Please model this.
Amino acid sequence: GEDVEQSLFLSVREGDSSVINCTYTDSSSTYLYWYKQEPGAGLQLLTYIFSNMDMKQDQRLTVLLNKKDKHLSLRIADTQTGDSAIYFCAERTDKLIFGTGTRLQVFP
Amino acid sequence: GAVVSQHPSWVICKSGTSVKIECRSLDFQATTMFWYRQFPKQSLMLMATSNEGSKATYEQGVEKDKFLINHASLTLSTLTVTSAHPEDSSFYICSAAGTGLGEQYFGPGTRLTVT
Model:
C-alpha cells in the first residue's frame, strides 16, 4: 500500500540543525522528494534523491535514504527563521504520494 | 527551477456555479499535469493526472463529471469545478512534469471558497 508518514511538528533554535524524518511503505519508489510549503502558497521543490542513492547534499540540505528501512530524512544545517514552513516528503511510484507534512518552527 | 502558474489565485463563488482554474507551465513543456486538493492543515491529495491530448485519469473517489480536466496543450491544463458546493471549498494545486527525470513542479495554488 501507499503510506507516507512524518512527525507533525518540529521546533528548533535558530542556528541549530533540523532533522525531519519520513517513512514510506512502497519499496518500488523510484524517487523521493522534499518539498517546502509556506503559508497560503504552493509547494517548492527543495531536493530529491534517486532510490539507488543513500545520500545527497545540496548546500545546507542533506538527504539521507535508508532503503532497507524505508526511511528518508532531511537535515537543514544552520536553520534560519526563513526556514519555518511545512515540509512534505513524497515518494514516486506511478504517481507522487505525499507525506502528512512536518511543521518546522524556528525560534530565535 | 521551472515555473508553474495558476489563475486565479483565489476565487469565491456561489453554490451551483462552475469555476475554472488554469494551470500553465511557463518555461517548459509539461507532458503530464496533476491536480491536487489540500484541506487546511492536511497533506495534498491527488485528484487526477492528465497527459497532453488524452483524457485525465482520476483517482478513486474523485468524480470526473464534477471535476473536469482539460489538458489541451503542453503548457496549459484547466480544472473546472462544476456545480460547486461548499464542501468543494479547498486549496487546489496543480503540478507539471516535463520529460526530464524525476522533477515535478507545483503552481502556487488556488483557494476556492464556495458560499
User: Anything to note?
Assistant: Chain A has a mean pLDDT of 91. The first strand of chain A starts at residue 4 and ends at 6. Chain A touches chain B at residues 30-31, 33, 35, 40-45, 48, 50, 88, 92, 95-101 (CB under 8 Å).
